[in-house]
Amino acid sequence: MNHQKFNLRSWVLLVLVGLAGAGVVGAQQGPSVVTVCPQLSEGCQFTDIQDAVNATKPSDIVQIAPGIYETKDSTGAFISVMIAKSLILRGTGTNPEEVVLKANREIPVVRIEKTQNVTMENLTVRDGNGGDGGTHPNSPFPLPGELLGGGLHIKDSVSVTLRNVTVTDNLRYGLVAVNVRNLTVERSQFSRTDQSLGRRGGSGIYLESSGAIFTEIYDPLTNTWQAGTALPKALGNIASVVINNRIYVIGGDGSQEQCWASVQNHKPQASVSIYDPLTNKWSSGPSLGVIRSEVAAAVVDKTIYAIGGRRERCTISFVNEALVVGP
Fold it and tell me: Which of 65, 72, 148, 156 sits CB 3.0–4.6 Å from 37 for a disulfide?
């Protein structure tokens, strides 16, 4: 009988120890750092950014040393860097120009798709190609009519941050964001986008069914951009004017849907937000009497006029409202 009791107690003790050990093993670990360098060396794990991304688990950090990086497949053909997990892609140079991700001007440099919580910082993205939306007979892109970012293409994702990123010398579009919620851009530059390919117009940034909440401040004396406090909410198709050294953002579309893409989801706004550059803060102003996006705005003396625009279901508005602003 005593022998049986001893075994029972030992078994219970082993179970408790096992559970405690499982708790230790199952404890959540912090993000790991994976390193990339132009050449393998001590303390550097990869020379290819895609290989490094593939080796990470969600929320890890890919730390990239100064250099120029081209991603290629086993045959030597250029391919885009594909990111489909939560990740931080961070250059370790003293400025973005020291860490360069580039393609061959035939494909996008980086594609971020169907993921969330991705940050790119302190990098340059260049020499990519957003194609012509499938209209060119030799287009390498699979979906007819699809718009792609030559430098960065972000699609079906949530919470993507670009911080101190330079996107330059790309064909068609520097950045395209499609169906992206909470896109934040801080201290980043988009320049020298070649718009000549194909029959569609090009741009530095193109947002489709996406909302951006960034505020950037340009200083012409130093020729630099810095981040300001983000808009209180993501808006597109806004109007803005300056009066009394403050910026008024009027109306807009909060649906993250273009009118031509979804009339039912069009959500014009009546909000008026006021930005004070001296305090770097936003405050709320008097709302419009009629909700509108794509509204025109002008200042005459101390009065702001909000004219026209689109109302619910993208219907055109003939409304002209006036807001008198005090000293």
Answer: 65
